[in-house]
Design brief:
Chain A is an alpha/beta fold and 431 residues long. Chain A is 38% helix and 13% strand.
Chain lengths: 431, 431
């Protein structure tokens, strides 16, 4: 199957033909999407798996309704964070017992940063810089700022201060990393542009200066092959409601390299992180394992649906998923450039496969209005400041002909300037 | 209705008569409980409200399934933390715009402690003691330890250290509070004993030495009348899955007195706490309101069911609820003392109404086995170390005759020593 061939020929029937031979096409039946919608926003909120409703009904009526408090044992609620973590591990190249599903990505990043900082305080107290990216997902920058600000509030007398250093066009990674770097925290795939870091290469660069590497996999887990252990990463966090289809706001995850797990606990040390939570001890002893990265009681209903999404992903050949993702993003880029080339769309996503995640972004001076017009026509992508049209290309429930049809609608909107209407420009909401 | 009269007469028919005239009896129809169960563990996990299944089906099929990413706007997902917070406000004596439903109780306690500590660092930098209770819910003690340990990791050179001071039999509150106290963090109702602090009195004592007062309302919200503004509290956190019937592990809440809201943000400062999250700015500006106590994206399915539980509570006359709770706990205590008095049960819950929450605890040398035997007979309470039988008395779905019947089963188990069986003693699980 020569996908670049499809793009070059630019015929709808070639897309239909490619769908005929697509080994992943059968996965479309495992999701329920509304009619008339081409959903290009699975990188923001994955759609509803077929089994999600049945699972949540079971949790509400049987586990909660009948089992009541007993379900902590009888329905396995206690084990959910670790059980889901071990399922997820297969998608991110983690070993067993290294991952828990819990809390939010931002909170888990705080835990990872706090733990990494403590290790450095002991091993290399002079390392007090957190390197991250100006164009990182903003919450990740804010969490880094929050933790440094909180620690620095203690240091007025000591003169010991933590610092956040942002890499950008002026300050590339190679210059930002130095002996003062305690930790580097990057998103594997950039939320805005879809650009992807070479995880192993960055880990090696970080370790060369004695820094620890934390990865945010929010836009990568379930989208691209990931090998955390192979890349020798130190920590990773991420989200289950995007490519893992866990449901709106479903709990996030944290992975910790086995070499760090018993060194330090993290300060969000609620009872679930205790060695023996139900001993009800009045002093803290951290769990001897990854459970020390838990905090409080998790939302069981939301956790349960994470499993439904993960179980689909575990049936998928990740290499086939990546091949289809690249073929589709190639096709999408080529079609937009061919058919919408005379409009002011600028590709923001890297052309090089090794540098590309699974979403494609174009900037446009009227990006917000164009995306609003697309959504009104049933092509649901999303908009990110400034001027960015973002399209999630999710191979499990999208077909090649969906890509063709989406670009045709985009072309029509641009050719007819139908985006140029007050309704589409009104920023009453975020798309 | 003279409930002490009922207890004194000790006849089942008097309980039936009391149920006939109970103005809250109609609320039992708003919950679904399994047949053959007397549920005395609503202080640990409230039962399923009638509307919960329908609500979650709507969220999964319509809001998630059809609305997809658009539901952040069209289904009001963005506003959920504040909207639920304002509903909850009526139950805890909070003003509008002072409460959000989010994260877990432990995480929210961390935020409250961090914010309070920052205020004291500026106003009274010499105040570096967190006073809490040895018998507080352990997670609260661990969070206080975690935050002090994390801050102290910065202070090796400066000699400035935070400290957790635990009040207990040796060190009463009046002696623990002094000019070094930065903050006092207590549970309004004790998770083990059901003992209740006088909130206004403790706040006054704290303020008299310049300390701030944080309250954990986990075992109080929905159980007893609470007036945070009236008591002049500084912060409060709590849980929605106990007396508020929000579902297993449903998100918690945080309330911040209006006078503190714009002073400091907290270090778990994810994008949801930003003044303009979707501006995607690379630097942090806290929201001008209670939203600065949010962090990341919330589990929408679990949040939605919190509302179902809250909507029931908002129909309840809280004074009537409290009156029935006290009548029932009086009855329960009296019946146990009358009918099980020759066994080794020791009442741990205060007799004085003003000092009692809505659960009753007895210690017993074989508490675990006794509770296991009770659960096997359909009387579901729970067990807490060491040796504590804990019974949640929830007036909305319990009748006086339920109390009578539960005590009869307890009496039978004790009289026949049916708890003395290997199955009931095996600690394979927490009840």
């Amino acid at each position: 199957m020569t996908l670049n061939g499809i793009a070059a020929r630019s015929e709808r029937k070639d897309c239909l033909a490619a769908d005929e031979t697509d080994s992943l096409a059968r996965f479309k039946g495992r999701f329920i999407l509304p009619p008339g919608v081409i959903y290009l926003d699975g990188n923001s909120l994955g759609p509803r798996p077929v089994g999600a409703l049945e699972r949540i009904q079971e949790v509400v009526t049987e586990e909660w309704g009948v089992g009541l408090i007993r379900s902590w044992n009888t329905a396995g609620w206690f084990d959910l964070p670790g059980r889901l973590g071990d399922k997820l591990a297969k998608l991110i190249g983690a070993g067993k017992g290294q991952t828990v599903v819990t809390d939010t990505t931002s909170l888990n990043l705080f835990k990872a940063l706090a733990s990494a900082i403590r290790i450095q305080q002991v091993d290399h107290p002079e390392k007090r810089v957190i390197v991250t990216e100006r164009d990182n997902f903003p919450s990740d920058v804010y969490i880094a700022e929050g933790i440094t600000d909180f620690l620095n509030s203690m240091s007025q007398e000591a003169g010991v201060r933590y610092e956040v250093r942002l890499i950008d066009d002026e300050l590339p990674l190679s210059e930002a990393l130095d002996e003062s770097t305690a930790v580097i925290a990057l998103s594997h795939v950039n939320y805005r542009t879809g650009a992807m870091w070479d995880m192993a290469e960055v880990c090696a660069q970080a370790h060369a200066v004695g820094a620890l590497a934390i990865w945010d996999l929010a836009h990568a887990a379930g989208a691209v092959p990931i090998d955390l252990v192979g890349a020798d990463a130190d920590y990773a966090v991420g989200c289950t409601y995007k490519y893992l289809n866990g449901g709106p706001g479903s709990p996030a995850f944290i992975w910790v390299n086995a070499r760090h797990q018993d060194r330090f606990w993290q300060p969000l040390a609620g009872w679930w992180s205790h060695a023996n939570p139900f001993a009800m001890s009045d002093s803290y002893t951290p769990a001897p394992d990854i459970n020390r990265f838990l905090c409080g009681t998790q939302p069981i209903t939301a956790m349960a649906m994470v499993e439904t999404g993960l179980d689909i992903m575990l049936d998928v050949d990740v290499e086939a998923l990546r091949a289809k993702s690249l073929a589709m993003t190639d096709l999408f880029i080529a079609l937009v450039q061919q058919r919408c080339g005379d409009h002011s769309l600028e590709l923001m996503t890297p052309s090089e496969h090794a540098r590309r995640g699974s979403h494609v972004s174009f900037s446009h001076p009227e990006g917000y209005a164009v995306m609003s017009a697309l959504i009104a026509r049933g092509v649901i992508g999303d908009y990110r400041e400034p001027g960015v049209l973002r399209f999630g290309i999710t191979p499990l429930y999208l077909s090649y002909v969906d890509i063709w049809d989406a670009v045709e609608i985009l072309r029509d909107i641009l050719d007819t300037r139908s985006w140029d209407a007050p309704d589409f420009k009104r920023r009453n909401a975020v798309t």
